[in-house]
């Protein structure tokens, strides 16, 4: 039995910034007590922020046993700070928030051991659950030091890595045997990998948590059973297969991996270098209420994943648009829209999109995209309609630009050249266009309270960005021959004709 302890309730481990901009670290209890004085959770890994938000929401839901009705949410929101039910809850369950407890270590599986053919424990480095580190055949996002360099984490750092891994671990081969679950061939995806997670943020952590604190029931935002609870309250260790969550709280605190941290002392400090790990419970069939949804041509819905070449704002039609009688937006949008009818809310919020792009279980990029949106965009179908028209205009501009670039190359290159597509792609004309349009989109959102004016300025921006992108990527590169001038003239005339047909 180990003698290590790290109490997540009172020991500082959650990195934040306060309203004055100072960077501070809090335990869970103090974070809730001062949430109205804290601006936000801040971590270099945005996935850690998203994972922490889900854990904190589960704490609130469980502590107040709700909110079950909008009036309960209103009362809590208007108080301006969290009440004593949360510290009372944390006091009751403090024994489940010890990171190194030998009986019930937080978010872990006690007694778990990865063993070799002789039954000898063979833990692996904690870097194996860190997307930013290189491990074996798995590619890395940022670190290039190689998988043979051990990672040593403080208990605070290990807690953040643990929570993030439980929600954003990628699938892949395992080929390990454990004392509790036997041999496992492979891992399944964690529940937050397969989509783009949306939150709304406000001026303080209290308001941010409240905005994302859904009013829920036994059927919404997903069916819940009497056994639904956060993972730290469970009396069983959980299974190793794809299952249906017991309810919303189980889903928020999904335990996709059985993990046991291995602490030891190093230079007088407690550190974590190694872990034991096995497949936990996956929720592959769950319709995640926090994800963006898109409609397929056959009418069915799916959750798109992050595309490293396509910023989330370009899917604003799917993100913000009301779809007839079916509201498939992230549930935080209709929630905040509904609460806006019972309390006075701010006119603007920051919409954040968290996602992990991967290819065959290799992480490509993580992303946190921010959009400053008016409340009216979340509640008024007419305002959303302006945004839909704006995105259609920008897509039309991109299509016209792509065709013009193709025409340029066809005129410029020798007849029957097979390099047209390759040359158009390498020129990066449409990529330059979308890079320029990103800034214009933020401006469009800032002006959306006057939607007619915003859309008129957006149309001008689309046409300007298309013409400039054609010029800087093609005309400036291919002016050394007479045929480039003819090609430029043809492409420019074509683009202008196509843009003239665009209107809002």
Spell out the key features of this protein.
3-stranded antiparallel sheet, 15 helices, 504 residues, Topoisomerase I, Chain A, domain 4
Counted up, domains total: 2
Ranges with pLDDT <50 over ≥5 residues?
Answer: none
Structural class: alpha+beta
Beta-strand percent range: 15-25%
Question: What is the subunit organization of this protein?
Answer: single chain
Count the strands? 14
Radius of gyration: 26 Å
Tell me the helix content.
25-40%
Q: How would you state the average pLDDT, rounded?
A: 93
Order of helices and strands: EEHEHHHEEHEEEHHEEEEHHEEHHHHHH
Give, in spatial order, the strands making up the sheet with the most strands: 2-1-3
Describe the fold and architecture:
With about 500 residues, the protein is an alpha+beta fold. It contains 15 helices and 14 strands. The protein has helices at about 30-35, 45-65, 70-80, 85-90, 155-170, 205-210, 250, 315-320, 330-340, 375-380, 380-410, 420-425, 430-445, 450-475, 480-500; strands at about 15-20, 25, 40, 115, 125, 170-180, 180-185, 195-200, 255-265, 270-280, 295, 300, 350-360, 360-375. Helix 2 packs across helix 4 (about 85-90), helix 11 packs antiparallel against helix 13 (about 430-445) and helix 11 (about 380-410) runs parallel beside helix 14 (about 450-475). The mean pLDDT is about 95.
Provide a compact summary of the structure.
The chain is α+β, with helices and mostly antiparallel strands and 504 residues long. It is 38% helix and 17% strand. The chain folds into 2 domains: 14-279, no CATH class; 384-500, Topoisomerase I, Chain A, domain 4 (Orthogonal Bundle).
């Amino acid at each position: 039995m180990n003698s290590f302890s790290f109490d997540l309730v009172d020991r500082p481990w959650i990195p934040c910034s306060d309203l004055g901009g100072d960077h501070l670290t809090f335990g869970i209890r103090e974070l809730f007590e001062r949430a109205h004085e804290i601006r936000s959770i801040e971590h270099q890994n945005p996935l850690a922020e998203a994972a922490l938000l889900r854990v904190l929401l589960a704490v609130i839901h469980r502590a107040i046993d709700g909110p079950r009705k909008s009036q309960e949410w209103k009362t809590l929101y208007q108080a301006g700070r969290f009440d004593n039910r949360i510290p009372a809850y944390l006091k009751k369950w403090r024994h489940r928030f010890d990171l190194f407890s030998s009986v019930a270590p937080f978010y872990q599986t006690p007694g778990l051991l990865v063993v070799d053919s002789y039954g000898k424990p063979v833990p692996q480095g904690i870097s194996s659950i860190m997307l930013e580190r290189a491990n074996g055949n798995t590619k890395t996002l940022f670190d290039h030091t190689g998988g043979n360099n051990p990672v040593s984490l403080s208990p605070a750092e290990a807690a953040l890595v643990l929570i993030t891994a439980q929600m954003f671990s990628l699938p892949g081969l395992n080929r390990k045997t454990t004392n509790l679950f036997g041999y496992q061939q492979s891992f399944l995806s964690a529940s937050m990998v397969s989509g783009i997670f949306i939150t709304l943020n406000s001026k303080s952590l209290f308001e941010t948590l409240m905005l994302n604190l859904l009013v829920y029931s036994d059927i919404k935002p997903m069916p819940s059973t009497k056994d639904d609870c956060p993972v730290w309250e469970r009396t069983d260790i959980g299974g190793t297969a794809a299952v249906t969550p017991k309810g919303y709280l189980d889903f928020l605190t999904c335990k996709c991996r059985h993990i046991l941290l291995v602490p030891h002392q190093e230079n007088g400090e407690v550190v974590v270098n190694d872990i034991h790990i096995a497949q936990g419970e996956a929720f592959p069939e769950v319709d995640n209420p926090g994800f963006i949804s898109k409609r397929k041509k056959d009418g069915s819905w799916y959750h798109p994943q992050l595309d490293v070449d396509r910023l989330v704002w370009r899917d604003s039609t799917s993100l913000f648009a009301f779809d007839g009688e079916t509201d498939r937006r992230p549930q935080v949008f209709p929630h905040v829209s509904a609460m806006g009818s019972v309390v006075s809310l701010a006119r603007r919020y920051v919409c954040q999109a968290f996602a992990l792009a991967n290819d065959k279980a290799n992480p490509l990029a993580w992303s946190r995209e921010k959009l400053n949106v008016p409340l009216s965009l979340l509640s008024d179908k007419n305002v959303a309609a302006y945004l839909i028209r704006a995105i259609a205009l920008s897509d039309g501009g991109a299509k016209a630009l792509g065709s013009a670039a193709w025409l340029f190359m066809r005129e410029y290159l020798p007849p029957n050249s097979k390099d047209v597509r390759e040359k158009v792609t390498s020129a990066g004309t449409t990529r330059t266009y979308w890079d320029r349009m990103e800034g214009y989109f933020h401006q469009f959102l800032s002006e959306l309270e006057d939607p007619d004016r915003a859309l008129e300025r957006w149309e001008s921006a689309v046409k300007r960005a298309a013409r400039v992108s054609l010029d800087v990527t093609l005309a400036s590169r291919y002016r050394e021959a007479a045929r480039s001038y003819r090609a430029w003239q043809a492409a420019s005339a074509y683009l202008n004709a196509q843009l003239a047909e665009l209107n809002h």
